[in-house]
């Protein structure tokens, strides 16, 4: 299985980028994974949102399970995420794409078309913090799956 993590823009805060890199390195011991950083439109109007949505849609591979980080999505515990990882692996899923949308959102059609919508928290997070939390929780899920002590 492979994870593709897709988000617009670069992580500008060096401390958060270092955390992402650290958890990404840890995660890569369990699963093939890559980060796809897309160019942001920088516009908050409908045309900008549509452009960001098209860019993300174009980055998705056919047949991949798409999980959108969405404040209105389902909330999972770390154990539920670990169970979902097991199900994907056991179900022969070849690729799971995690999408962190841009700061101005994504088109409603795209949001409704994804396979799963996942809310990391009821709290409002910056997009850069959400990136850290996403990669950390994916790593945590694998430590749970493999019975490693990190999750304690």
Q: Which class of secondary structure composition applies to the elements?
A: alpha/beta
C-alpha termini separation: 26 Å
The CATH topology: Alpha/beta knot
CATH architecture: 3-Layer(aba) Sandwich
Strand percentage lies at 15-25%
What is the total number of structural domains?
1
> What is the count of DSSP helices, taking H or I runs of 4+ residues?
5
Report the helical percentage. 40-55%
The CATH superfamily label reads SPOUT methyltransferase, trefoil knot domain
Radius of gyration: 15 Å
Based on DSSP secondary structure assignment, what is the total number of beta strands?
5
Report the CATH C-level class: Alpha Beta
Return the average pLDDT rounded to an integer: 93
Q: Any low-confidence stretches, pLDDT <50, length ≥5? A: none
- Shape descriptor reads globular
